[in-house]
Amino acid sequence: MVIGVVYLEISIPDANSLKEKRRILKSLIERARNRFNISVAETGLNDVWKSAEISIVTVGNETKFVNSVCSNVLNMFEMEPFIMIRDCWTRIL
């Protein structure tokens, strides 16, 4: 079994309240879950309006597959116009 973990620290410049931040994050997280069949959670900076930490996990039988999913998820977040990625890392376990 191969486990892929992606950590993202993002900035949400257009969020002017926690409600707005959560609306943007909820949309992103749901799209990622539906598109890639992954586990996604906001894991930090919960009460900060313009920032968030997101952790993403996927599991598979082959390293190549897990690496591809992690890469595609990261690309999806990079293309998102409402956020900026400040820090990210990927681990394959």
Brief summary:
Helices cover 39% and strands 38% of the residues. Strand 2 and strand 3 form a beta hairpin.
Q: Oligomeric form of this entry?
A: single chain
The assigned CATH architecture is 2-Layer Sandwich
Largest β-sheet summary: 4 strands, antiparallel
The SSE order reads: EHEEHE
**Secondary structure: number of strands:** 4
The CATH top-level class label: Alpha Beta
CATH superfamily: TT1725-like
CATH topology name, in short, is Alpha-Beta Plaits
State the helical fraction. Answer: 25-40%
End-to-end C-alpha gap:
9 Å
Q: Proportion of β residues? A: 35-45%
Structure in words:
The chain has 93 residues and is α+β, with helices and mostly antiparallel strands. The protein has a four-stranded antiparallel beta sheet with strand order 2-3-1-4, covered by helices on one side. The chain is built from two helices and four strands, in the order βαββαβ. It starts with a strand and ends with a strand. The protein has one domain: Alpha-Beta Plaits (2-Layer Sandwich), CATH 3.30.70. A hairpin with a 6-residue loop joins strand 2 and strand 3 (51-60). The chain has helices at 18-36, 63-79; strands at residues 2-11, 39-44, 51-60, 84-92.
Please name the defining characteristics of this protein.
4-stranded antiparallel beta sheet; Alpha-Beta Plaits; 93 residues
Q: Topology of this structure?
A:
Blueprint lengths: L1 E10 L6 H19 L2 E6 L6 E10 L2 H17 L4 E9 L1
